[in-house]
Write a structure and sequence with these properties.
The structure holds two protein chains of two kinds. Chain A is α/β, with parallel strands linked by helices. Chain A folds into two domains: 134 residues, 3-Layer(aba) Sandwich (Rossmann fold), CATH 3.40.50.2300; 138 residues, Rossmann fold (3-Layer(aba) Sandwich), CATH 3.40.50. A six-stranded parallel beta sheet of chain A has the order 2-1-3-4-5-11, sandwiched between helices. Chain A has a six-stranded mixed beta sheet with strand order 7-6-8-9-10-12, with helices on both faces. In chain A, helix 9 links the parallel strand 9 and strand 10. In chain A, helix 2 packs across helix 10. Chain A is elongated, with a radius of gyration of 24 Å. In chain A, 46% of the residues are buried. By secondary structure, chain B is mainly alpha-helical. Chain B has a domain of 200 residues. Chain B contains 16 helices and six strands. The longest helix of chain B is centred in the N-terminal third of the chain and has 29 residues. Classes of the chains: A alpha/beta, B mainly alpha. At the A-B interface, helix 2, strand 7, helix 7 and helix 8 of A face helix 3, helix 13 and helix 14 of B.
């Protein structure tokens, strides 16, 4: 009983301290929000985690462009857990930030916390990944890549590359993590474009979990069970890099004997492209920061923004990769 | 014939042969092995090569399970060891420098040993349940690996490091040679010396073995350290094979595959007995299953279901109780010890 009393006393003390802290920062942000005329905006950003190089570059871009745009950034890392993200968003609501941005870990289960933000009149911007809420008024806009379009870009290059040929083109595909949005959409976009011509045949398609090790392992098996492979389409650079090692191990020349298309354009992938081992890369840019800050300013100022904003992205050939590599930030 | 069927390893071996036969049916040249660029090349070699890290981790896991414990941290140790080695090599002025690569290997394996000893200390010294004690490094270890790599994939370009997991020696993949060496050493230590029996006695009854004069604490710490060392070598192989360290994904869920391999091989999860040969066979079954999925083109959406079905069948045919029910056999039943295991392993499909 005594222990229990002590514990509740401790808890109480803790709550008081937290409440005081909440008041303090709350007062702070109201002050800055009140001074919105001088352009000082506070943004709460709830990041997914730091699970890949892509994500780290994404985080860095957001932090740097917030500084450059003069926006005060409150940043939290959810370590791939939805409950952490919801907690972070709730705390941003309590702190009365001017705008909340986040990359949802999963697609569903956001309605409640988004309604709380709406009630508190704090606009929400989604970045990189979407939510499946039926009520689209819960967020102002969604800034991110169009994965289907990335698949289409990969397919278009292939169609162009083989436009003079009538022979069958045997394609193998390394998919991303089964069921993830980028894997589903990149597969669908690619299939849509090459499906128009019957000479393109996907003879094997298997998941490589977006990793180099799996990409290599799966490609080794493909090479043995399918002696005649013309093209490899990998849903990200890393799987493509693993597959390159498998192709070299089989005594073939990547980029020549087997043409390789990948998505992402991270540094190692760009290097392989410049070396001619990859033939074409569709960019999936993590540099969302500048666009996000622009949108945040517009949203806070009450301007209308489009419901879907695409990331500015391009594609790379080996020549373009050589030119871009020295100044590539990630 | 009956003696053969009664042999402990008959059923896992039968499943392995069946899987290989299925592959031959789908890919006619599956069993062919040729020379390419001065080394052996073929699907069978691939199974050994990609299975090598799993076999290593499973060997370490076998001994830990024989003491009645379990080590969930091996996947994280795989990631940490690869990350540390690649980080050190990427900082070398000459990445091909053999001395520098050896230092990197030494650092990585040293850290693995420390982590293993920590697990052993928590289990034997403080008496925390193994599943909880090793859970700590399973969770925190991945964070450590990410800290080492700064959340990025560290790429190295070192021919000497490449040898460990992706190179060849005397036409054979070097990783297979490492596995054979570790296997031979472990078999010698545990089956030619009394060490194996001592380990089993801890698993049988830790208190009784201590009262009988066996230093069970020190031995338990050593077994966990050995398991982590195996995982560390596996981590070097995995990262060397793709010349890069991925703190997030390297060795992810390998602990579950390793436990499954141990169990398919007929080692009891209750501890007290183990079979190294069975573990190697179990690991080969798992790797062959993976390769089969790639070569016969099972769609990724159904891969896990297919794996689970095969594993369930393996476990069922291994269970004497199940076979007796289904085949109505009235022969003498085998000792009861493995039965409990065989039922439990159905729970594990990874």
């Amino acid at each position: 009983m005594i222990v229990f009393k002590r514990m509740s006393a401790l808890l109480l003390a803790g709550v008081t301290i937290m409440a005081a802290a909440g008041c303090g920062s709350g007062g702070d942000t109201t002050a800055s929000a009140g001074g919105a005329d001088d352009g000082k905006i506070t943004m709460g950003f709830a990041q997914v985690g730091a699970e890949s190089g892509w994500r780290t570059a994404n985080t860095k871009s957001i932090q740097e462009s917030a500084k450059a745009a003069g926006i005060e950034l409150k940043f939290s890392d959810a370590q791939q857990k939805q409950e952490n993200q919801i907690k972070a968003i709730r705390s941003y609501i309590q702190q009365k930030v001017d705008v909340i941005a986040f990359s949802p870990v999963v697609e569903s289960g956001w309605d409640n916390v988004l309604k709380e933000a709406q009630t508190a009149k704090i606009p929400v911007i989604l970045t990189d990944r979407a939510v499946d809420s039926a009520d689209t008024s819960l967020y102002k806009t969604f800034l991110g890549s169009d994965f289907v379009e990335e698949g289409r870009k990969a397919g278009k290059w292939l169609v162009e590359e083989y436009k003079d040929s009538t022979d069958t083109v045997n394609i193998v595909e390394l998919q991303g993590t089964t069921g993830s949005a980028p894997a589903n959409d990149r597969k669908a976009g690619f299939a849509e474009v090459i499906g128009a011509e019957s000479k393109f045949k996907v003879i094997a398609s298997q998941t490589g979990d977006f990793t180099r090790a799996k990409g290599k392992e799966v490609m080794e098996a493909f090479l043995k069970s399918n002696p005649d492979i013309d093209v490899l389409y990998a849903h990200n650079d890393d799987m493509g890099l693993g597959a390159i090692e498998a192709i070299e191990g089989a005594g073939k020349v990547p980029g020549k004997d087997i043409k390789i298309i990948t998505v992402d354009a991270v540094k190692d992938g760009m290097q392989a492209l410049a070396d001619g081992k990859i033939n074409f890369i569709v960019e999936c840019s993590p540099i969302l920061g500048p666009q996000l800050m622009d949108l945040a300013k517009k949203v806070v100022a009450g301007e209308q923004v489009p419901a879907r904003v695409l990331t500015e992205e391009t594609t790379f050939t080996p020549e373009q990769a050589k030119a871009a590599l020295p100044t590539r930030p990630y | 014939m009956t003696a053969l069927v009664r042999h402990r390893l008959f059923w896992p071996a039968a499943v392995l042969l069946l899987l290989l036969a299925a592959n031959v049916a789908f890919t006619p040249g599956f069993l062919s092995i040729e020379m390419k660029d001065g080394h052996l090349y073929g699907s069978l070699i691939d199974i050994f090569r990609f299975g090598a890290p799993l076999i290593l981790v499973a060997i370490g896991m076998t001994l830990v399970i024989a003491t009645g414990g379990i080590d969930l941290s091996v996947g994280s140790v795989v990631a940490i060891s690869g990350a540390l080695a690649c980080l050190h090599i990427s900082g070398l002025p000459d990445q091909n420098d053999v001395g520098g690569v050896l230092t990197a290997v030494g650092l990585a394996l040293g850290l693995a040993l420390v982590l293993g000893a920590w697990n052993g200390f928590l289990v034997a010294g403080i008496g925390i349940q193994p599943i909880i004690a090793t859970l700590i490094i399973m969770v925190a270890g991945r964070g450590l690996a990410q800290l080492i790599t700064d959340g990025q994939i560290v790429t190295v370009n070192s021919a000497s490091y490449k040898l460990i997991g992706g190179g060849y020696w005397l036409t054979l993949p070097f990783s297979i040679l490492i596995v054979l060496a570790v296997l031979a050493l472990t078999a010698f230590l545990t089956r030619r010396l009394a060490l194996g029996m001592l380990v089993e006695s801890i698993g049988g009854n830790a208190t009784a073995s201590r009262l009988a004069g066996i230093r069970s604490r020190g031995l338990t710490v050593a077994v966990y350290a050995f398991c982590a060392l195996c995982a560390g070598i596996a981590g070097l192989m995995i990262s060397s094979n793709v010349s890069s360290a991925d703190g997030n994904n390297a060795g992810l869920w390998i602990e579950l595959d390793a436990i499954l391999a141990v169990v398919i091989g007929g080692t009891s999860l209750m501890g007290g007995r183990f079979s190294l040969g069975g573990t190697v066979l179990g690991a080969l079954v798992i790797q062959t299953l993976t390769t089969t999925i790639y070569s016969i083109g099972i769609p990724p959406e159904t891969t896990l279901l297919f794996k689970a079905l095969v594993v369930t069948v393996v476990c069922l045919v291994q269970s004497p109780a199940f076979r007796e029910k289904v085949f109505q056999r009235r022969g003498r039943r085998r000792p009861a010890a493995p039965q409990a295991t065989d039922d439990e392993k159905v729970e594990v499909p990874a």
